[in-house]
Amino acid sequence: MTRKVMMRRPSAAEEGRQTAGKTALTVLFACISILWMMPIVIVLYNSLKSNAAINLDTFALPAGDSFVGLRNYVNGMTFGNYPFYFSAGYSVYITLVSTGLILLCTSMAAWYISRVGDLFSRAVYYLCVFSMVVPFQMVMFTLAGTARDLHLDTPWTIPVVYLGFGAGLAVFMFVGFVKSIPIEIEEAAAIDGCGPLRTFFSVVLPMMKPTLISVGVLEIMWVWNDYLLPYLVLDQTKYKTIPIHIQYLQGSYGSVDLGATMALIMLSLLPIIIFYLACQKHIIKGVAAGAVKG
User: Fold this and answer.
1) What percent of the chain has pLDDT over 70?
2) Looking at the whole model, is its pTM more than 0.85?
3) What Rg do the C-alpha atoms of the chain give, in angstroms?
4) Domain boundary assignment for the chain
5) Would you call 114 exposed, middle or buried from its count of C-beta atoms within 10 A (0-12, 13-18, 19+)?
C-alpha cells in the first residue's frame, strides 16, 4: 500500500515574502556590481581628460576644456623610445604560449596522476596542491636568479616559468574532473587499439573541454595582468609587457602622464574584459565539473 505525499502549496503571504526576498537580493547584488564597475568607469572617463583636469577633480566627467578626446591614447602608445605595440606583442605571446603550455602539460599530468595512483603520482599531486599556498614573495628572488642562470629571462622562454607557477591550480582542477570520467571509456579505446597518447588526445582531452576552458580563462587573466614576475625576470632595457610599460610612463623629475596612463590601462583591460564576458559561463561549469568525486 503506497502513501501519497501531498505537497502543501505556499500561502499568498509566504509567496509574497519569497518574492520580496528575491527582489532584495537582486537589488543588493546590482548595487555590488555597480560598485565593482565604478573603478573601470572612472578610469575610462579619466582617459579622456587632460592631466590638469584629472589632478583637479578625478571624479568629474570630461567636459569643455578638460575633454581631450583620444589624445591620451596617442600619447600613451607613442611615449618614449619603446613603442607600445612591442609591449602588446610580448604580452600576447607570453599569455598565449604560457596558457597553452599549462593546459597541455597539466592536463596530461592530471590524467597520469588520476589513473596510475601510485606513491609517486600522489606525491606529485600533493606537491602541486602545496604550491598553491606558497606565497610568491617567498621565492621571487631565488626564482629571478634561477631564471637568469637557465636563460629563461626572455619573453620566448618565460612561459616555462609560468608553467611552474600555474601548474598547481590547473592540476588540482583537472585531477578532480578526470576522476569523474568512467575508466571503461578508456578501456574500450584500448581494446580498439588506441595507445596511451591516442587515448588521451582522442578520448580524454575532448571530454575535458569544460575544465580546459575554465582553467584557460583563469590562467589568461592571471598571465595577462601579471606585473611582478616579468618585472623580476625580464631585462627591462629590452623587453616590457603592458603592465611594465604603463609603470614606465614617467617624465622628468618623476612626473607622470596620468591621462596616458589611464588610456593604456583601458587598452590593457579591454581585451581581457571582452574575453572574460565571452567565457564566464564556462568558469562555473568547469569548476563544478572539476569537483572531486568519489
Assistant:
1) 88
2) no
3) 25
4) 14-73, 83-289
5) buried
